[in-house]
């Protein structure tokens, strides 16, 4: 099926040329916290594993030790 409608690109957002290092750190900390909350709430329902590599490895080693 082809939909013949016009597409108008309005331009994208652009990051400022210089971002203070402390702002980057705050953003990364808040992103990590948000991902942790998201993973805690939805990890069992997601098709992909959202745990960190360290968490996946620890769970894998724990499961392997139980065998």
Describe this structure in a few short sentences.
The protein has a domain at 21-66. With 67 residues, the protein is mostly helical. The model has no long low-confidence stretch (mean pLDDT 76).
What does this structure look like?
This protein is mainly alpha-helical and 67 residues long. It has a domain at 21-66. 54% of the residues lie in helices and 0% in strands. It is built from two helices and no strands. It has helices at residues 21-42, 53-66. The protein is flat. It starts with 20 loop residues before the first helix and ends with a helix.
Shape: flat
Q: What is the percent of helical residues? A: 40-55%
Count of alpha/pi helices: 2
The residue ranges in which pLDDT falls below 50 over 5 or more consecutive positions are none
How many strands? 0
> What is Rg?
20 Å
**What percentage of amino acids are in beta strands?**
under 5%
What integer is the average pLDDT?
76
Distance from N terminus to C terminus (CA atoms, Å) equals 53 Å
State the major sheet: none
Order of helices and strands: HH
Content-based structural category? mainly alpha
């Amino acid at each position: 099926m082809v939909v013949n409608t016009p597409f108008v690109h309005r331009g994208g957002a652009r990051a400022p040329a210089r971002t203070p290092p402390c702002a980057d750190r705050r953003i990364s900390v808040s992103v990590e916290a948000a991902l942790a909350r998201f993973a805690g709430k939805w990890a069992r329902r997601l098709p992909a594993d959202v745990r960190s590599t360290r968490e996946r490895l620890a769970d894998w080693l724990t499961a392997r030790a139980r065998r």
